[in-house]
Fold these 2 entries.
Entry 1:
Amino acid sequence: MKGPWMVIFGWRNDVEFSNLGCGRVNPFADDRIVPVSVFSEHEVDQLHEVRRRLEAAADDVHKRGDVWYDPWLPAYGCALQKTKVNAAVVKLEVLFVDGWERTLHFLLTGECVHSAVPKAYHVLHCADLDSALEENFNKKFDSKLWKAQQGKGSKRSAAINDLGHQKTPQFIAAVVRRAVAAVTSAKEENEDNGFERDKRFSPHGGTTDVGQHTGGRPRDTCWPLVHAAISRNLCCGPGLFRKTMAMFHLGLLKKTIYQTQGAFRRGIDVKSGCDSSLVELLDGGYDVSGLQDECAALRANVDELIGQLNRQSTSQYHLPDSTALQQLNALSSEVLIESPKRGKGLNGDEDAEERRRRALGNLNGCWFIDGAMCSLRDLLGWEKTTGTSNANKCVLVLRTVETFMFTRSHELVDDDQVADNDEGQFVEQMQSLVTAYQNAAATWRQLPRDKSVLDVEQRSRELLVLWIAFCLVHKSCVVDVPLCAEYNIALDWKDLKVAVLSERAAISALQNVAEYSRGWNDRTKGLQLFHMTNQGPTFGFARRFGLDSSAMVAAYNRTWVMKLKSIRRSGFPQMRLE
């Protein structure tokens, strides 16, 4: 039974490694950024863990958390899964395939076979067994299953709560429950009399009989059962399972191609040896006419095989015959297309630019700018010339600004990228852009439209744009105002997990914001600046910033002197100016 999954997890050709964890390890991980042919180190570790579970033997020493399968029962469409919950308890479950659907496939002989394939799997919880009784349980299970298999004819029936013998997963679950009851019972049970007519130990319904059906063939359950076990034990979501299956089928295809090429080369070598032997016999004066006829017959078989392959390839591409051409020629279009009439009031002297502007105005369109390539100044100029009177323009403004911000988010983690920020105007321009973006979002929400999940994702995108803008401004202010470098960013990167995003660029931008804020706070380890619930550090920052600024100190002194003079003129001559 080790062969199939040895091929799956032992085949390592064309498999690379990259540092990427799944969503269970990193909530911001997105496995779609890695090509299908690439497996990360975390994914390879998970595949090795699944391989260990599938190959684990019953007599191995198991520790807490281990999962193994013993026995595999493909004749019943299931396997007994055992889980070491702790040092004293082993959980017994029956993993079985389900969701059978009818299908047709053709054998090499051309015979059409009606069969069924499973599309799902389920798990039946049977019991929690004391680990000290596991060996006795295995013996009881084997003996009770063997005894049930000896039943013939009417003894296979499960009527009146008998065990019977049916090729169903529920039958195996009933055997498991009886074996557990036998090893945990206070008295010895030589027979099953204590279990007969007891509903707790009788087989239940609801599962498919996978035994012999019409045609005398049992259902194919071996590979679907292994398929279900692999899918159940992978923790990285469906992506890793699909990648593994794709690589497995690709490996089988390569193996088949290599075997075919090898067989063809061996056949050519045998043919060359046969030709040499015939030439030697012919030189010796022997009559080789009979062998020549056999070689000619073999050559005819080879030519026939090649001809069949060529006919299969060319059957998909052929020209229609004369009858089909006549039928096509006789067809007439049911839609009458007439040339539009020219309007009498049109101005024939207008140039192409005027016609283009007029057409653009008639279509109620707007200019387009590439948010990933434009500068901040160009984007602000484009936004001012683009109104948001309808839904299409609102969405265009939102998506263009989001594309610009998502692209600029790479500057947070990549020091090699130098932004084209205008000296002294970056903060003001970024504030203007964010304000325009929020106004467009507010206008878009007021437009009539159907409520959908897009509202939730749009709010997440707005939050992401705000945090990207804040981090970009923070990175700029740290250079201009070194005092900012002593404070943390008022953002816990773990709180960003509430964002609902589906676009890869948005997820990448979210990761950049999380990496920047997390890295800055880990390096600085200071108080949080501009925190909404704790404004003490913000006031302290303002005080220190004001005392360090000569311009602000001079302005403060001028204001204080003017205030004192005003008080003195109002009737308090005893106050003295210092």
Note: The CA atoms of residues 388 and 394 lie 5 Å apart.
Entry 2:
Amino acid sequence: MTNPTRTKRCGGDVLCGIDNHFQLLLYISENHCQLETKTFFEYFLRIVNKTHDYAILENKKICISQ
């Protein structure tokens, strides 16, 4: 993880930073749990796939109506 920042909030010690795989990692020591988001690349691909699926659906609607 590069350039982590440590802050104290709500009585807990929070470590937050961005690692080399574009993942935002949030460590909360009081709960001993870790919250990790999906990588930016996976998120981007999901948006592209939804847009692609929508375009195919719209194209089918146009072909059927003609």
Note: The longest strand covers residues 2-9.
